[in-house]
Amino acid sequence: MNIVRTPKQERSQRRRDALLQAAAELIAEGGLHAVTHRAVAARAGLPSSTAGYFFASINDLAAEALRVRVRQTVNDFLELIDPAVDADGLTNAVGHLAVDRQVELAQVSLYLEAGRNPALRGPVAEAMEINRGLAEKLLTSVGLPNAAAASSAFVALFQGFMLQHLATPDSPPSPDDLVDALRALLAGYLLTEDERQNLQQRLRVDPTA
Asked: Strand ranges (DSSP E) for 16-165?
């Protein structure tokens, strides 16, 4: 069903969107401590009382900014699903799309803040589950038989890459590094149980023997 908004509603939605974009930028720049109603409104170019009108607390504003970022990311990645794209093509596209420093900073800042702030734990857990579901959809699209089991490992790999990318800005890992890691993880989940056991046995062999 199409919802027809009045000019006033459209103006209100634009202001809300601008506030959320401003909040995400401030979180990326200085963490949650950089976010105040006044600072967000100023960044959005709106009167100082505007943010408080839409969001009762900073936690509400931060949580919704995270939800918006996650939805944007999901939509971007879902566009990669194509019957003509195989696993190799998908991992290459995913690895190169994943690198966005501002998105990484905003998400990681909120993930860390959730460890100290119980009010953010629900939204962060929700974001984690959405990301896991997204990984499962992507892996299913290329025919991985155990996509549900593999999805958590893929999300963990992405998050580890984000941390490394942020922690070493002078020499960050490249998108190709992430692509190689994704391909290696995917290959591991394609092994049969016998192949996995044989590989584990080979890894146990003493090279000096």
From this structure: none
Cα(183)–Cα(103) distance, integer angstroms: 23
* Amino acid sitting at position 68: V
Using CA atoms, how far apart are residues 190 and 31, in angstroms rounded to an integer? Answer: 39
Q: For residue 84, report the phi and psi dihedrals to the nearest 5 degrees.
A: -85, -10
**Rounded CA separation 16/71 (Å):** 16
In this predicted model, what pLDDT tens digit does every residue of 94-132 receive, in sequence order? Answer: 888 887 788 888 888 899 999 999 999 999 999 999 999
Angle at 113 between CA 107 and CA 115, to 5 degrees: 115
User: Across the chain, what does the average pLDDT equal?
Assistant: 89
Distance separating alpha carbons of residues 113 and 63, to the nearest angstrom: 11
User: Between helices 147-167 and 121-141, what is the axis angle to 10°?
Assistant: 120
Distances (CA, A) of 191 to 20, 148, 168, 200: 44, 16, 33, 12
Between the two ends of the chain, the Cα-to-Cα distance in Å is 71
